[in-house]
Design goal:
Length: about 70
């Protein structure tokens, strides 16, 4: 029920961290198992190496549904 809110908070966290890839394995009794993956756009990684590094603001998402609204 709160999946959309969780996704928004998780992606907000990703905007503040330095990362290359994040994977979530979501298990739900009613909806079954779903896998989600976020991968930083390769062009964003150069921002990590600057004197004033910046977290990524662009990534690719792949996986299960972003919403379980019926």
């Amino acid at each position: 029920m709160e999946w959309k809110k969780w996704m928004e908070k998780f992606e907000s966290l990703l905007r503040r961290l330095y990362w290359f890839n994040a994977v979530v394995h979501h298990r739900a009794e009613v909806l079954g198992d779903q896998d989600y993956e976020w991968t930083v756009d390769a062009n964003q990684i150069v921002h990590y190496l600057k004197d004033d590094p910046k977290p990524p603001n662009k990534w690719y998402f792949d996986g299960g549904p972003r919403s379980f609204d019926m």
